[in-house]
Every structure is written in structure tokens, then in C-alpha cells.
Amino acid sequence: xxxxxxxxxxxxxxxxxxxxxxxxxxxxxxxxxxxxxxxxxxxxxxxxxxxxxxxxxxxxxxxxxxxxxxxxxxxxxxxxxxxxxxxxxxxxxxxxxxxxxxxxxxxxxxxxxxxxxxxxxxxxxxxxxxxxxxxxxxxxxxxxxxxxxxxxxx
Length: 154
Hints:
Layout: H1 3-15, E1 21-28, E2 33-40, H2 46-63, E3 71-75, H3 86-91, E4 96-101, E5 106-114, E6 118-125, E7 133-140, E8 144-149
Parallel strand pairs: 2-3
Antiparallel strand pairs: 1-2, 4-5, 4-8, 5-6, 6-7
Helix pairs in contact: 1-2
């Protein structure tokens, strides 16, 4: 059985009890590190990560899914982790984003709406010799290669 698939099933079982938390990613690294990334509509706490870790770890051991030694790590994505899911975009409405497009260009703007097909941002367009203007743009998700939240220390 595929380890990542089974871990995903186990995490989803536990998340049925935690409706404000959602799975972002499961990755088994060659060095034996099993990473489970979860996020929440209002963030995710240590107690939630611990509960998920206990549930997954118990069942992996019980079923002997992983034959080699492994290290299970359950955490939330870091502040610099790219957004992957619509639910992550929705959670970050009102924040500034850095967006890498599939044509290699970069865009920045304030996220004002998010859906399954596209996001909407307010971006400042500067043209030489003219006053900068704020424009609302709709960007289809399929044209985005990476989106990160810009952190402001102001």
C-alpha cells in the first residue's frame, strides 16, 4: 500500500472530529521523515497536531505500514510555505500575496476574493510618467505556479 495514501486516509479520519482543520499535504521523504501538513480556518494548535500525530502513529504501528524506521512530523505549513488549497486562499483574504505566474512573471497584490477557479487581487500598477493606480485583477489558478503570503513587519 502507498504510505502517503494510507496516511492521508488516517489524517482525514481524525479531521472528521476537527472540522476547522484541513489537510494540506502528506510527504514521505527518502530519509524516513514522514511530513503531514495541516492548517485551520483560524490556525492550528499544538494540541491538534499532537492528536493527529497520535492517531496516525498508532494506526501506522498497528498496521505495520512502514517497515523501516521513520519520523512522523505533524505541523502547520510555515509562514513562507506556498498556498496550495482554495481553503488556504480564503483564509488569507485581506493579506498581500506574491504570485509567480506560469510565464515567469511575478505579481503582488492584496487578496480580495478566492474561488475554486481563480483569485482576485488588488494590485498597484505603475506606469512611467503617470500616477500609480490600484486595479482589481482576476487570476485563473491554472496560470499560477506559486503563491506566498507577504509578511509585513510594519
